[in-house]
């Protein structure tokens, strides 16, 4: 009997900008403190992309180039590129298109997915469907330059967010590795608590929208917090039950990094110890679509072929969900001789 095709992650790349904004510097910008941020959110530092005319694609390009390099992949072989982001370089073309161009990926079709903090999960699910239906190499990116939409005069949102990008390569497996199940949800009613009102077709940029601060993130922390705690855990538990997984079967929970208290509550409800929970919020903050691939990037060396991972996220939309993934290789991939052409900085 023909074995079913699943979409295995066969490599991971990542990038965070050099500039580090720590809690001390932030405390000089808004009325906050290291103690408050560490207790309520669990963030010490976030990386910020500086420079005029440099957007999310700058980070995505670097993550994808590292990915192509590590996996020894010829960019010409890539068939699909999907980028999850809420901070595209511009309304169009898509950021995936710009990243592909700069990475020498000329034979793929490329598009963006907008699902805020759940963006990478939605994009990974979509990428897996292309592999299952016959594509051989698909790249899925999560990338956000959150500093471009954060109001650094607002203490309720400015400590939370950072910039970064992560990317994975998907290839077919007939041995049962890769994306095995996903449970994804959207509820547009949640938009009221978390959104950015200006800059789209409803409220294009004007003096008025700028004056009203509509080009910044608007978040009502508490309702979002409550929904995140319940929905992320519900979805993760649903995926565990459907696949008859107990907490002993799971090597790692890979949670969206929005707030350490949300992550701890989700892990507790899944019966997982802190050691089984990927965590890098203290260094990067909430990088929106990039948090989950950046976790995989940071923990790659500790992962082994056959490890069961549950990825879970909640974010703007509302959007949320969980995904069950069986890891396909052991440890860090060695850097290979890059097939990627040199980066033209122009
Ligand atoms: O990734 C997308 C999805 N987003 C999330 O998952 C975020 C979910 N929400 C949260 O993580 C939390 O609600 C926040 C981190 C945003 C806020 O934490 P909180 O524990 O819910 O605080 P709060 O908004 O209830 O504020 C408590 C107090 C208030 O003061 P009073 O009214 O009690 O005197 C705030 O004014 O803390 C004050 N406060 C601050 N104090 C110092 C709010 N922000 C700060 C700050 N520094 N940065």
Write a structural description.
This protein is an alpha/beta fold. It folds into two domains: 171 residues, 3-Layer(aba) Sandwich (Peroxisomal Thiolase, Chain A, domain 1), CATH 3.40.47.10; 147 residues, 3-Layer(aba) Sandwich (Peroxisomal Thiolase, Chain A, domain 1), CATH 3.40.47. Helices cover 29% and strands 23% of the residues. The protein is built from ten helices and 13 strands. The strands form four sheets. The protein has a five-stranded mixed beta sheet, with helices on both faces. Strand 12 and strand 13 form a beta hairpin. The radius of gyration is 19 Å and the shape is globular. The protein starts with 5 loop residues before the first strand and ends in a 20-residue tail after the last strand. Bound molecules: oxa(dethia)-CoA. Oxa(dethia)-CoA binds next to helix 2 and helix 7. The site of oxa(dethia)-CoA has 18 residues, from helix 2 and helix 7.
Query: What oligomeric state do the depicted chains represent?
Result: single chain
Largest pleated sheet? 5 strands, mixed
The CATH C-level class name of the largest domain = Alpha Beta
Looking at CATH, which topology of the largest domain would you report? Peroxisomal Thiolase, Chain A, domain 1
Q: Helical region count?
A: 10
């Amino acid at each position: 009997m023909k074995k079913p095709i699943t979409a295995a992650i066969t490599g991971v790349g990542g990038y965070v900008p050099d500039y580090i904004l720590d809690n001390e510097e932030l405390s000089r910008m808004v009325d906050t403190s290291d103690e408050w941020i560490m207790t309520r959110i669990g963030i010490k530092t976030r990386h910020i992309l500086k420079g005029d005319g440099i957007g999310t694609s700058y980070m995505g390009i670097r993550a994808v180039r590292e990915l192509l390099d590590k996996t020894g992949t010829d960019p010409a072989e890539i068939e699909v590129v999907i980028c999850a982001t809420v901070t595209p370089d511009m309304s169009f073309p898509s950021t995936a298109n710009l990243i592909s161009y700069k990475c020498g990926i000329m034979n793929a079709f490329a598009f963006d997915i907008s699902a805020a903090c759940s963006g990478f999960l939605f994009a990974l699910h979509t990428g897996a469907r292309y592999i299952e239906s016959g594509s051989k190499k698909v790249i899925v990116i999560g990338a956000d330059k959150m500093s471009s939409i954060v109001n650094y005069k607002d203490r309720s949102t400015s400590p939370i967010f950072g910039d970064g990008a992560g990317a994975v390569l998907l290839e077919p497996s007939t041995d049962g590795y890769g994306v095995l199940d996903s449970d994804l949800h959207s509820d547009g009613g949640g938009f009221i608590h978390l959104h950015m009102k200006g800059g789209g077709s409803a409220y294009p940029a004007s003096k008025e929208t700028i004056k009203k601060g509509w080009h910044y993130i608007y978040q009502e922390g508490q309702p979002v917090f409550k929904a995140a705690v319940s929905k992320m855990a519900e979805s993760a538990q649903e995926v565990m039950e459907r696949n008859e997984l107990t907490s002993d079967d799971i090597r790692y929970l890979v949670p969206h990094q929005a707030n350490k208290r949300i992550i701890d509550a989700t892990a507790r409800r899944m019966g997982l110890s802190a050691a089984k929970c990927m965590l890098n919020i203290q260094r990067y903050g909430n990088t929106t679509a990039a948090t989950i691939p950046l976790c995989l990037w940071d923990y790659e060396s500790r992962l082994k072929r056959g490890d069961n991972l549950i990825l879970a996220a909640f974010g703007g939309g509302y959007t949320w969900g969980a995904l069950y993934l069986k890891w396909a290789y052991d440890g860090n991939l060695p850097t290979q001789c890059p097939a990627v052409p040199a980066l033209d900085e122009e």
